[in-house]
Specification:
Layout (H helix, E strand, L loop, with lengths): L2 E5 L4 H12 L3 E6 L3 H12 L5 E5 L5 H15 L4 E4 L14 H29 L2 E6 L3 H4 L5 H21 L4 E8 L5 H4 L3 H9 L9 H12 L10 E4 L4
Parallel strand pairs: 1-2, 1-4, 2-3, 4-5, 5-6, 6-7
The structure holds NADP nicotinamide-adenine-dinucleotide phosphate (NAP).
C-alpha cells in the first residue's frame, strides 16, 4: 500500500487532504507544529478509512526535525510515496510595517519547509523509481496580494521550486506539481472582515468560496496514476477567480 505524508495535516485543508487520501487507500502520516489534539483527532479519522496512520510533531523549517520525522516514518510505516507539502502560515502586514521576523518565519515554514521535506522524500522516491510531490501554493503566489508580500513571495517561490524539481526528477518517475487554491473557507480566512469576503466573492465566477474538499480532490488526482503525465504544473483551484 502507498504511503502519503501530509505536512500540516493536523487541521484545516491538510487534515481534509489526509483523510481524503486515506479514503483512496493510502496509509497516511501527518505532521504538525504544536496542536497535538487536532493531530490525534485527524489520525482517528484517517484510521476510520481502514488504513495505517501516524502523527508526528515536527517543525518543517528545521532540517533536523524533518530528518528525524522521515526516519521515524520509515521505521514505522515505510518510505513516503506521496508527499504533500501543505504546512503553511501567514504573518500579514503592509511592507513598511512588516518585521524581518515575520518575513523570515513565513519563508522558513512555507518555502524552506518544502525544500527540507522534498529533499528527503526525493531520495527514497528515486530508489523506488516512483513518487508524487504536491506543493500547496496559493493564487496569491501568482497574482500577489496587498498585505501579504512575505506570504506571496513564499507561494511564488514554491512555484519556481515545483517547476525546477519537476525538471530534475521527471526521468525517475517522480512528478512534482503545485496546487494553487483561491479563497478557501478555513480558519485562515474566516477572520477576514465581511466586506473583504464580499469583494472576493465578486471576483469568483462560480460564485462560491472554495472548500478544503475542492483542494483535496485536486491533490488526490495529482497523486494518482491518472496524473502520471502531468508534472511541473500549477493547478489553480479558485472557482475561476
Ligand atoms: P491552517 O488551518 O492554519 O493549518 C496549518 C497547518 O500547518 C496546521 O496543521 C499546522 O500545525 C501546520 N503547521 C504550521 N506551521 C508548521 C510548521 N512549522 N511545521 C509543521 N507544521 C506546521 O492552514 P490552512 O488554511 O489549512 O492552509 C493549508 C495550506 O493551504 C497552507 O499552505 C496555506 O498557505 C494554503 N492555502 C490556504 C488558503 C486558504 O484560503 N485557507 C488559500 C490558499 C492556500 P498545528 O495544528 O500544530 O498548528
Amino acid at each position: 500500500m502507498s504511503l502519503a505524508l501530509v505536512t500540516g495535516g493536523s487541521r484545516g485543508i491538510g487534515s481534509v487532504i489526509a483523510i481524503n487520501l486515506a479514503k483512496s487507500g493510502y496509509d497516511v502520516a501527518i505532521c504538525y507544529s504544536g496542536n497535538e489534539k487536532a493531530a490525534e483527532e485527524t489520525v482517528e479519522k484517517i484510521k476510520e478509512a481502514g488504513v495505517k496512520a501516524m502523527a508526528l510533531k515536527a517543525d518543517v523549517s528545521d532540517p533536523d526535525q524533518v530528518s528525524k520525522m522521515f526516519s521515524d516514518i520509515k521505521e514505522e510505516m515505510g518510505n513516503v510515496d506521496v508527499l504533500v507539502n501543505n504546512a503553511g502560515i501567514t504573518r500579514d502586514g503592509l511592507l513598511i510595517s512588516m518585521s524581518e521576523e515575520s518575513f523570515d518565519a513565513v519563508i522558513d515554514i512555507n518555502l524552506k519547509g518544502t525544500f527540507n521535506c522534498t529533499k528527503l522524500a526525493v531520495k527514497d522516491m528515486m530508489r523506488a523509481k516512483h513518487g508524487r510531490i504536491i506543493n500547496i501554493s496559493s493564487i496569491v503566489g501568482i497574482n500577489g496580494n496587498a498585505g501579504q508580500a512575505n506570504y506571496a513571495a513564499s507561494k511564488a517561490g514554491l512555484i519556481g521550486f515545483t517547476k525546477s524539481v519537476a525538471r530534475e526528477y521527471g526521468s525517475k518517475g517522480i512528478t512534482v506539481n503545485a496546487v494553487a487554491p483561491g479563497f478557501i473557507e478555513t480558519v485562515m480566512t474566516e477572520s477576514l472582515p465581511e466586506k473583504v469576503k464580499e469583494a472576493y466573492l465578486g471576483q469568483i465566477p462560480v460564485k462560491r468560496f472554495g472548500s478544503a474538499e475542492d483542494v483535496a480532490a485536486a491533490v488526490e488526482f495529482l497523486a494518482s496514476d491518472k496524473a502520471s503525465y502531468i508534472t511541473g504544473q500549477v493547478l489553480e483551484v479558485t472557482g475561476g477567480m
